From TrEMBL:
It holds the Pfam family AAA_16. The lineage of its organism: Bacteria, Bacillati, Bacillota, Bacilli, Bacillales. Coiled coil: none annotated. This is PyrBI operon leader peptide. Residues 21-187 form the Orc1-like AAA ATPase domain.
Length: 407
């Protein structure tokens, strides 16, 4: 069949940059806009965006960055008042990586800050090398967190003057993927000390905006109890039915396709509020469609292709990571359940064990990020497509008879 080529309007692999393609999240956008407003008024509201894996944290962080630097398209679309014509912050961004220490993060942020200030005001040297915070600067002995806080605040102070004199509103420091940082790295202590010191020294138009996976962020508090309570938490919930439908219809209409309403129901049921599978399914439906009308048959073909091809390897290794024996049985039971939120007694009945006999397995499955606890006694797959994978391929049956496996 000859098909006209077009740009795929779905993008499962990158955060939303186009505000028109950013669906829902009114409350969360309002909260980040308020944090930006408060910071501009010397009331620092450090903010952390939390949510499950793939829920849209980086997308909201990116939209916040655009808002902070004067792009009002999203707040205009949502009719949110930001208290100014536009924000005009100087920003810096760092994506945390595995095994990064607070020093890596500070160094990444400050290098970006230096570059961004230079772009605006001409060459600006924060003398990061003197502090040992420049790539390739002579290796110094490791700083303590307290030293790092002092250096960080020193450098921010230098930048702050230039920023405020240059008629900018202040400085926003973005850190994405904060969940990757190890809890014992000192990062929570760093935030606590640094935010207090800046405030004490009257540097109040500086704010941190971070994003990270819910459970992992709580773990960071091992280092410094409840530090993130001094942050404003902006939790990202699952998408509603209408937000999910919005992503699909905008995508389809943008390339001149129409669709049966039942397709929207089917995608919502399968994606259970996660945006990523909506994009994957949307994209596959467009490539499976035999006409410009997306039908439930198109959806079924796309669903099949996603689990047997597009995401097959990823889902397979997710299933392997879960563990064998009883772990697989639990997942098999969960896949049999009709809706996305599976009650514990359903699992119990299916595998024929008393709840107490597999509570450790449930905790381990949560720890391994195979399932999440939605509510007391209610669980869901972390990746909703895993359910469909198990329905297609079944569970892994080795060690079938070992029912006390890894207990
Ligand atoms: N509000 C939204 N509207 C439309 N699509 C969205 C929205 N939020 C996220 N997405 C899409 O969902 C996918 C995952 O989003 P994103 O990368 O922002 O999630 P994340 O929570 O940062 O994921 P991770 O836990 O992997 O870091 C991307 O394809 C993104 O484009
Ligand atoms: Mg992300």
């Amino acid at each position: 069949m000859h098909k006209k080529r077009f740009v795929d309007p779905f993008f499962p692999n990158r955060p939303v940059d186009d505000p028109d393609r950013f669906s829902g999240r009114e409350i969360q956008v309002d909260e980040v806009a308020d944090s930006l407003f408060q910071i501009a008024n010397s009331n620092p509201k450090h903010t952390i965006i939390t949510g499950d894996r793939g829920m849209g944290k980086s997308s909201l962080l990116l939209q916040t960055r655009m808002l902070a630097t004067g792009d009002n398209r999203l707040v205009n679309k949502l009719d949110i008042d930001i208290g100014y014509d536009a924000f005009n912050y100087i920003i810096a961004w760092h994506d945390a990586n595995y095994d990064q220490t607070p020093e890596h993060i500070v160094s990444g942020l400050l290098r970006d800050l230096e570059g961004n200030i230079s772009k605006l005001f001409g060459k600006f040297n924060l003398e990061l090398d003197l502090y040992g915070l420049k790539v390739g600067s002579s290796v110094q002995k490791e700083k303590t967190v307290a030293d790092l806080v002092n250096d960080f605040c020193d450098i921010i102070k230098k930048s702050y003057k230039a920023v405020i004199d240059g008629k900018k509103q202040g400085i926003i420091l973005f850190i994405d993927e904060l969940d990757r940082v190890r809890p014992d790295s000192g990062i929570a202590t760093f935030f606590k000390l640094a935010t207090e010191k800046l405030s004490r020294e009257g540097i109040k138009k500086v704010g941190f905006f971070c994003a990270g996976i819910t459970g992992a962020i709580q773990k960071l508090e091992v280092d410094h109890g409840s530090v993130f309570r001094t942050f404003r938490d902006v939790p990202i919930p699952r998408l509603t039915k209408s937000e999910t439908s919005d992503i699909l219809s905008t995508g389809f209409c943008g390339v001149g396709f129409t669709f049966d309403r039942i397709v929207l129901d089917a995608v919502f049921e399968l994606s259970s509020g996660f945006p990523e599978p909506v994009h994957i399914l949307g994209s596959e439906m467009l490539s499976e469609a035999s006409s410009k009308q997306i039908t439930i048959e198109t959806f079924n073909k796309a669903k099949k292709r996603v689990v047997t091809d597009v995401k097959k390897n990823k889902l397979k290794s997710l299933l392997e990571k879960a563990g064998y024996g009883k772990y697989q049985k639990i997942l098999e039971a969960m896949a049999k359940y009709e809706g996305p939120y599976v009650p514990l007694d359903f699992i119990s009945r299916h595998i024929g064990y008393d709840q107490k006999q597999f509570s450790t397995n449930i905790s381990n499955l949560i720890e391994r990020e195979t399932i999440t606890r939605v509510d007391k006694g209610v669980y869901a797959f972390v990746d909703p497509l895993l359910k469909e994978y198990i329905r297609n391929f079944g569970i892994i049956n080795i060690k079938d008879n070992v029912d006390n496996d890894e207990q």
